[in-house]
Amino acid sequence: MMFLGVKRGCLLLLAVLLASSTQASGAGDITLKALRAELANGGLAPVIAHHPLTTQPGVDLERLFADSHFQRFAITGYNSNGQRFAARVRLHFADGRVGFIRLTGVPGREYRLEDLHDYTTGLSLAGLVAERRWLGSHEGKAFLEALGKTPESDTLAQLAGGRAAPLALWLAQCSGQPCEQTALEYQIEPTPPALWQLMVVPASSLPQTVAGLQKVLGDDPWLAWLVGDAALARQMCPQVDTMLMTTWLRHQDNMSLADVALQCFLATASRDSVSNGPGNKFLDSLSDSLGAATLSAAIHQYFLRRDEAVPEALGDWSEE
Fold first, then answer.
1. Arithmetic mean of pLDDT, 56-77
2. Each residue's pLDDT tens digit, 150-196
3. Which end of the chain is more exposed for a tag (fewer CB within 10 A), N or C?
């Protein structure tokens, strides 16, 4: 299974800086230590093995997540009250994709996993478990057979019958594949929100969707990077450019975010946005971080590709 993600070339950067596993609260917690040790293997299979129902009718959970290999991870949130634990994990993949998952269950050295929720596709193990009777029914088996043979067919939407878990499974199976767009068209609004919404919501709803994702994923610069990446692809930078700049100002070590924040800002730059908005501070800080010559070259390259003149409002940062 793959995780939905979009990657773009960098305008400013020579290399992408990826963070390794970060510290979370509860550094001495045995469950947290176990999670870190298993995730350090670069896959989700060791974690899935802690789920009591690793095999659903027609759905082998271990096999489903077996190819979810990642290069690096960060546990960005963790809490446990001794009876329950919850961990939020950011995953970095070799091809540049970034995903987020939430793990919940009963703590302990041999913890019991009750749910793995993928914030990218909305796929949830608990959701699949809740549908186990349907998955074993005639209709469920027909859905799974079609998913394996013709994942590009919109017949899958009819077979799913509006069930969120099978629809999310369809999207997860199609992530990065030609059938992805078809699966996206038939997803229903998830609770909690999912990253796939960034690729389908109208411009007017994008800020609300972003706020919902920030609520569950926190102030994470890689979430902002995903938001900016989607906004650039869909020409929706006016809806998020301020959020991107202010997030980067809090996370100035993240050059991937700096890249998309700058591109989005330049796509909407005006004299007013530079002088009265956060643009002035953003450009000054970016100049300090990258160097004035690098920032100037990036600005000129951006407008040269569009066969446009550099706006006068950017004169202080675009002198050659």
1. 74
2. 999 999 999 999 999 999 999 998 988 999 999 999 999 998 999 99
3. C
